[in-house]
Amino acid sequence: MQVVHFMGTGAGRAARVALGAALVVVGAVAGGAWWALSAVGLVPIAAGAFDFCLLAPVFRAPLRHRSHA
Question: What is the reported pLDDT for 66?
Answer without folding.
Answer: 63
